[in-house]
Amino acid sequence: MAAGGISDAAGVEAALRLGASAVQVGTAFLACGESGASAAYRDRLFSPAARFTELTRVYTGRLARAVRTELGGRFAGMESELAPFPLQSQLMAPIRKTALDNGYSEYSAVWAGQAAGHLQHNKAVGLMEELTSLWRK
Fold first, then answer.
1. Smallest Cα–Cα separation from 87: which of 57, 60, 56?
2. What is the three-class DSSP state of 55?
3. Which pLDDT score, from 0 to 100, does residue 137 have?
4. Helix runs in the chain, H state only
5. Given this model, what pLDDT does residue 8 score?
6. Are 93 and 85 in contact (CB under 8 A)?
7. Distance from C-alpha of 102 to C-alpha of 77, rounded to nearest angstrom
């Protein structure tokens, strides 16, 4: 199974040609309005900032990829001083929630894969049509 950095039909096709029997698409679906992600989160995924993702422990204490944010930058070089998971996640939860509730994604984790800067669809039906286009040829 191939996963990571796949957000369009070309990525699916490449993974299958390289021998994958299945492909997982994540961030591309998260960006769709039907995902349940907040509008601020989806807006950030379609912003120029989405081209810059990084691995960080700032939001949860576990290493995960997210769009680079102001809050993450404030902790640059200090990750060894963060609380371990799940305590770091509990400490950051009110900050993340308040930030997203107020449409300010610079202080909330915007989880995203490496292909986030290439997202094209904000509706699941359009994404599915593209991803399944391989089988309609």
1. 60
2. strand
3. 63
4. 9-17, 27-30, 39-45, 70-74, 87-101, 124-131
5. 92
6. no
7. 28
- pLDDT exceeds cutoff 70 at 88: yes
CA-closest candidate to residue 38, choices 88, 92, 107, 110: 110
Residue 134 scores a pLDDT above 80: no
Q: Are the beta carbons of 129 and 8 closer than 8 angstroms? A: no
Whole-angstrom distance, CA of residue 81 vs CA of residue 102: 28
State phi, psi for 55 to the nearest 5 degrees: -85, 130
Q: Which residues pair with 2 in a beta bridge?
A: 23
Q: Quick check: 89 pLDDT over 90? A: yes
Are 69 and 96 in contact by the 8 Å Cβ rule? The answer is no
pLDDT attached to residue 127: 96
